[in-house]
Amino acid sequence: MIFFPDALFPDDHAAERAAAAPEPVRLHREGEVAEADWAAARAVIATHRRRFDAALAARMTRCKVLVRSAAGYDNVDLEAFGRAGIAVCNVPDYGTTEVADHAMALLLALARGVVVADAAQRSRPGSWDWRVAQPVARRLRGARLLVVGLGNIGLAVARRAAAFDMRVSFYAPRRPPGLELALGMERADDLGAALAEADMVSLHVPLTPATRGLFGAATLARMKPGALLVNTARGEILDLDALHDALRAGRLGGAALDVLPDEPPDPAHPLLRAHAAGEAWLAGRLILTPHIGFLSPDAAADLRRLAIRTALDALRDGVLRSCVNAHLLDRARHDAR
Q1: Which class for 66: exposed (0-12), middle (13-18), buried (19 or more C-beta within 10 A)?
Q2: Annotated catalytic residue: which of 291, 305, 309, 331?
Q3: Is 269 assigned a catalytic role?
Q4: pTM
Q5: Selected catalytic residue, list 124, 263, 273, 316
Q6: Number of C-alpha atoms within 13 angstroms, CB side, residue 25?
Q7: Would you call the peptide bond into 173 cis, given omega within 30 degrees of 0 as the criterion?
Q8: Is the distance from CB of 36 to CB of 21 less than 8 angstroms?
Q9: Which listed residue, 90, 222, 287, 333, has the most CB atoms within 10 A of its CB?
Q10: Residues in the chain with pLDDT < 70?
């Protein structure tokens, strides 16, 4: 049985059922999941809605593979599932272009003063004053963009930025040597030094213990004065208090965020309160979107197709497509011998 414990889509998942046949598919939407469903599942297709921890892994006694139906998998305890012998796979090839497009849209809107100009037209319909965008508008051609993290999405953003004649560099210490030569882009070996030179920074690292809070007060202080920051990765990578202070002090030129540490956020947070109130010091310098970077009908169709394919590849052929805990599975097998 392939189990969807938090089925997101409103239909009966007819396409998934047809692809899986004769393997049954079971959907669950509301309330507690029955113990029998966890125990019977041979594959589980997981969303962001619950934490998949050691206790849950222990209940999934027949499970061969947990498919996280997204690129991110920070709500899954990889160690625990590795010890339980359950492979964890993600879907890194869904939504890549959507998120990259959204990152560029945020960067363009921020750099060209689109939001502040639109707000001025709505508040003063009869006006037509280009000076409203003057404090924030800037040229992209020749500006240096630092891409932090060069996975699928980071690379897609780098390619798009290059098409705007930006000077693109990347910080990705785990990527193999020579990648910069293949891409024709500059590699940064020191994050702090790269931040000091970058006019714009776009975040594309996964959320891990090493990246949680990576962009805190100390890191933001190393950014070039007036630089722009875009985050379409995970909200917890960026300290919202530190961002408020950096924007309020004028050290950063602006920020555009599709993700926040808490979603939905606390509207009482000083930065969000200032944004909602339209405070003058923040005008045109902060853009917020509610985690929509992945969004499109095409991306949703890809996600469903690729998630069920990943589960079936594991169950039918023993092929682990994009397994993110393979090293932990190997360790568990070694320890069992």
Answers
A1: buried
A2: 291
A3: no
A4: 0.91
A5: 263
A6: 19
A7: no
A8: no
A9: 90
A10: 331-337
